[in-house]
């Protein structure tokens, strides 16, 4: 039984050892509003291609897990309502019941590893939510990074999260957190935070080397690359702080928790900033796609 369906383009690239970048789909269904979700999904694929790699957007459609979607499939997903948000726990159940679901960072990593794709670009990973010490709302993305050998390029954990505790969990799990080209950890909408990143690298080649060395050492799990949003597109932390606080108060008042929390906060923050945060979100995903393509190219050269 084949558990994963590769698009013809992705299958060809894999067979020839060409660079491939996995892309997630929760950002399409739960992370951005229509029509920016569709525009961004298309644009990010174009960015990956322009940087010399093949994009593989991952999702479950009518029970089939795909790596590489056609334009029509991306369009369907972007327009769909009430799509399941799939993580490690619910991926197989969605496939077994013929459902349709978008993949989070965790589920996308699982699919990418199954397809032999080592590099993946997203916006921001999940992490420890504010108040997580009581709610225990800690994203399965963190555990996935400790298990599945994929290098994930993000713009930091989303700044709606408890960043110091998120870093602590990643350290406990033995996940390398690598800031790209700077010492401080980027904070999604902001290119920098007060926190220093545990590791720093300045080239895609170094990141690819570290990925290969980890594999040779038999170390389970992937790497997290935190790529700062370009300065021209960032919103400084001082401006984001009150907006995030307001969105969190709203979530609290409405009793929103669990899987619905991250999508709610992102939507609220996009609204509160008059879509400025959305523009920044789009810019950082595109920036991550370009770096991921460079890393994939280095891995392909080394392989
Ligand atoms: N990056 C974005 N927007 C998003 C996400 C990432 O720019 O919506 C998604 C990813 O799929 C990530 C998920 O896995 O948010 C985290 O959800 P949670 O906090 O419920 O684990
Ligand atoms: Mn959660």
From TrEMBL:
The keyword Metal-binding applies. Keywords: Glycosidase, Hydrolase, Lyase, Manganese, Metal-binding. Mn(2+) binds at residue 137. One of its GO terms (molecular function) is hydrolase activity, acting on glycosyl bonds. The keyword Transcription does not apply. It catalyses: D-ribose 5-phosphate + uracil = psi-UMP + H2O. It holds the Pfam family Indigoidine_A. Its cofactor is Mn(2+). InterPro entries: Indigdn_synthA-like, PsuG. One of its GO terms (cellular component) is cytoplasm. Substrate binds at residues 85, 105, 139-141. It is an enzyme of class 4 (lyase). It comes from the Bacteria. GO terms for biological process: nucleobase catabolic process. The active site is at 24 (proton donor), 158 (nucleophile). Binds 1 Mn(2+) ion per subunit. Its EC number is 4.2.1.70. Belongs to the pseudouridine-5'-phosphate glycosidase family. Homotrimer. Catalyzes the reversible cleavage of pseudouridine 5'-phosphate (PsiMP) to ribose 5-phosphate and uracil. Functions biologically in the cleavage direction, as part of a pseudouridine degradation pathway. This is Pseudouridine-5'-phosphate glycosidase. The gene is psuG.
